[in-house]
Amino acid sequence: MIHFECDYTEGAHPKVLESLVATNMCQTTGYGNDEFCEKAREMIKSLCGNPVADVHFLVGGTQTNTTVIASLLRPYQGAVAVKTGHINGHETGAIEATGHKVIAAEGKNGKISAEEIEQIYNDHHSDCDHEHCVQPGLVYISFPTELGSIYYKKELEAISATCQRFGLPLFIDGARLGYGLTAADCDVDIKDIARYADIFYIGGTKQGALFGEAVIFKNKSLSRDFRYMIKQKGGLLAKGRLLGLQFAALLEDNLYFDLASHANRLALKIKDALVAKGVELTCPCSTNQQFALLSNEVVEKLSKDYSFSVSPSDKEGYSNVRICTSWATTEENVDKLISDLNKVL
Questions:
Q1: N or C end: fewer C-beta atoms under 10 angstroms in the chain?
Q2: Phi, psi for residue 186 in degrees, rounded to 5
Q3: How many other CB atoms sit within 10 Å of the CB of residue 189?
Q4: Which tens digit of pLDDT belongs to each residue from 61-96?
Q5: Do 141 and 170 contact (CB within 8 A), yes or no?
Q6: b/e 95-127 (16+ beta carbons within 10 angstroms → b)
């Protein structure tokens, strides 16, 4: 079975493993207060162009989203997100479990707009009974989105300006950040992300690490006592150095972005093959996730050798299929998939 259902089916990049093995018997203090985590923090601050940023390491995406959002919101506030946003649809109510509602906007192609954010804010505060309703407390977006699309500079500028105007922190989920920043049509870099977002994270789990996400706060005014929150949510890893080591290895010599570029290139190779066969792409994009409308007959044939993420479609006899490449996807497996697609389409 060849797996294309997600971008974390393999373990970790060899350089990550080499770093872990080489330092295995080194003695360090715990909970991320070690020299390896400090090295990674300095690398990240330099990469972001922000020497006063506050950097923390957590284990996974859902844990990161939950911990960050819970730390930023008052008990009566909620997180504004697009309807297809990860926190709204694929985190098993993790945000709601902390007592905070996800205020969902319809969005378009997986993206929320500055206008929608303004509408949600104004609708709440113009309601004469607003004290009886959940107050918008922050804005959450993903880069890239759950549908593989990316926010362009003009969109991020508008969203950031709107958030600042209304005093709403902007939190960017970067679980797949590298895949978004290395997309062919991306017109922003990580310094732009660090400038527009109040908080964002660099994803490791889906981009070459065994596990781990690096959370960056623009300044310490929003991250006050954040380590208390990490501990309370069960995220303060005792052997915290394991997180710092992995990010230091991935950020050395541009490896993190090279791996992301590799995944995007192979995803676009699959995309071109689908388009050549007249397959409808449900959300055309330039990142490592490609979404296609395939007949159930084709899905059944391919599923004998390949694993995809499959969901129901409004079109009778068809399914929505997500084909996902990763830092570890091989050219050989992509070529095999394309060959088999050509046989059944």
A1: N
A2: -75, 130
A3: 16
A4: 999 999 999 999 999 999 999 999 999 988 889 999
A5: yes
A6: beeeebbbbbbebeebbbbbebbbebbeebeee
Q: Give Cβ neighbours of residue 37 (< 8 Å, ≥ 6 apart).
A: 57, 240, 241, 243, 244
Strand order in the sheet with 318-324: 280-281, 289-295, 318-324, 309-312
Strand partners, 201: 215
Whether the CA torsion 253, 60, 262, 150 is positive or negative: it is: negative
308 and 5 Cβ atoms separated by less than 8 Å: yes
Measured distance CA(50)–CA(44) in Å, rounded: 9
Which SS3 state, helix, strand or coil, does residue 306 take?
strand
Q: What is the pLDDT of residues 197-228, one digit of tens each?
A: 999 999 999 999 999 999 999 999 999 999 99
The H-or-E segment that residue 266 falls in is: helix 255-276
**Model's pTM, two decimal places?**
0.96
The pLDDT tens digits for 137-165 are 999 999 999 999 999 999 999 999 999 99
